[in-house]
Specification:
Layout: H1 2-21, E1 36-38, E2 42-46, E3 51-58, E4 65-67, E5 70-72, H2 78-81, E6 82-84, E7 88-90, E8 96-103, E9 113-118, E10 124-135, E11 148-156, E12 159-168, E13 179-187, E14 192-196, E15 204-208, E16 214-216, E17 220-225, E18 229-241, E19 244-254, E20 257-258, E21 262-267
Parallel strand pairs: 2-11
Antiparallel strand pairs: 1-3, 3-8, 4-7, 5-10, 6-8, 9-10, 10-11, 12-13, 12-21, 13-14, 14-15, 15-16, 16-18, 17-18, 18-19, 19-20, 19-21
């Protein structure tokens, strides 16, 4: 009898050890109650077709179960744009359900992050991130104890031609005779602009915040230097007045240091 108990305890210890090595949190284990839990306290999901989907799991697959889900967010106006479509509904035989969050015109709110990544043909891929939190009530919570999950909803932007802008780079990267016309594009669903190859190489992008005054410009590569390699526009602070965007560049940086600071002025069409 003692040997059997010890064997059972050893098997249980092994099960706990295996679960602790699993990076996916929210493993559901409950012999009695039909309860639910998120799979992880953090998740990144794409924004597609007007909604985002977050999975919710439960302890059994027997019967039907409806679990109410609430949404909160720190960002101003987020709860006006992002809405939980309804409770997560488990059908008989299913251990996973979908929490569907719909979204409206997200150009009315500020994203938490603007990402700009170089791709082929000197173009860049531009994305936005919107954070919010989903939660279920403790009455519906399984022993996994993942009652809420921090969601980062991400959108890869599509752009359309928006005409010709004027770039004044006399105090910036180009220097003398640095005034030129450049092609500009605007995102279809956000206040984000892309300047197409302003310095003859990489395109650059920036976002106008909802206050209509502040410009967000993450560090990004403007092109290559024959001797020092990639040149980045770093620690940029930006403003817009009317149609004039002013980018104060703290440094045009390379791996070996910096070419110094500058100002790029873009007059939108």
């Amino acid at each position: 009898m003692k040997k059997s108990i010890l064997g059972f305890l050893g098997a249980a210890a092994m099960l706990v050890s295996l679960n602790s090595c699993d990076k996916t949190e929210g493993a559901l284990y409950d012999l009695n109650d039909n309860k639910a839990s998120f799979y992880s306290p953090k998740v990144t999901v794409p924004m597609e077709g007007g909604s985002v989907i977050v999975p919710l799991g439960r302890t059994t697959t027997s019967g039907e179960l409806s679990v109410p889900v609430t949404l909160t967010a720190a960002g101003a106006g987020y709860t006006n744009i992002f809405k939980v479509a309804g409770p997560a509904v488990f059908t008989n035989g299913e251990g996973k359900a979908e929490v569907k969050v719909t979204y409206g015109d997200f150009s009315k709110i500020d994203a938490s992050a603007l990402s700009v990544s170089p791709i082929a043909n000197n173009d860049v891929e531009v994305g936005l991130a919107f954070p919010f939190t989903l939660a279920i009530d403790s009455a519906n919570l399984s022993v996994s104890q993942v009652a809420k999950t921090s969601v980062s909803a991400t959108s890869t932007l599509e752009f359309a031609d928006a005409g010709t802008a004027v770039l004044n780079s006399t105090g910036g990267w180009i220097g003398e005779n640095g005034i030129k016309n450049v092609k500009i594009q605007k995102a279809k669903t956000a206040n984000v602009y892309k300047v197409v190859s302003p310095f003859g190489e990489n395109s650059i992008a920036f976002m106008i915040k909802s206050d209509g005054k502040t410009v967000v410009f993450p560090n990004q590569v403007l092109g290559m230097n024959a001797e020092y390699g990639a040149v980045s526009m770093s620690n940029v602070t930006g403003t817009i007045a009317g149609k004039v965007v002013t980018l104060n560049v703290a440094g045009y940086t390379v791996a070996a240091g910096s070419f110094g600071s500058g100002v790029e002025i873009i007059t939108l069409p």
